[in-house]
């Protein structure tokens, strides 16, 4: 089981996908957890999501996926788990945005944002779940150590 989580190759695409997904999602997590980038911080975000009827455990899992997940992705540590968390969070968000259609609300003429961004994030996350962390990942180092031990 551990080998399946950490196993990867030295493919550059895993590194690129990890860093892009981390770059996009860290600010979202930092908004929710730290209040950076105009966010409400931990308490405000928690209260908001609870007010939407979302159970606390799911809000905490969202915070972990969007804040801790990108940190782990930069390190290439628990890449598959981190990408899966982001992928699940984006799948739920896509369902929420489904009534708004595919397209982002570039011109302000829709009720809300579409789900195209979410689909791209899900695709990147899925690729990382399948491929693993790739080049320069701690997953690769741990898998190699486990294999030679």
From TrEMBL:
Gene Ontology CC annotation, any one: plasma membrane
Subcellular location: Cell membrane
Pfam families, per the entry: DoxX
Segments passing through the bilayer: 54-77, 84-107, 119-142
Principal location: membrane
Membrane topology category: Multi-pass membrane protein
InterPro entries: DoxX, DoxX-like_oxidoreductase
Keywords for this protein: Cell membrane, Membrane, Transmembrane, Transmembrane helix
UniProt family annotation: Belongs to the DoxX family.
Protein name as it appears in the record: DoxX family protein
Species per Swiss-Prot/TrEMBL record: Leptospira perolatii
């Amino acid at each position: 089981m551990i080998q399946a989580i950490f196993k990867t190759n030295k493919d550059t695409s895993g590194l690129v996908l990890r860093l892009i997904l981390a770059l996009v999602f860290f600010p979202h997590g930092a908004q929710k957890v730290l209040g950076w980038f105009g966010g409400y911080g931990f308490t405000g975000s928690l209260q908001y999501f609870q007010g939407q009827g979302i159970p606390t455990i799911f809000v905490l899992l969202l915070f972990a996926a969007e804040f801790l997940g990108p940190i782990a992705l930069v390190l290439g540590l628990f890449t598959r788990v981190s990408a899966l968390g982001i992928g699940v969070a984006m799948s739920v968000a896509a369902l929420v945005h489904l009534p708004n259609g595919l397209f982002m609300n570039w011109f302000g003429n829709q009720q809300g944002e579409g789900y195209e961004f979410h689909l791209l994030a899900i695709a990147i996350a899925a690729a990382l779940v399948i491929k693993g962390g790739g080049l320069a990942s701690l997953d690769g180092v741990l898998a190699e150590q486990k294999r030679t031990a």
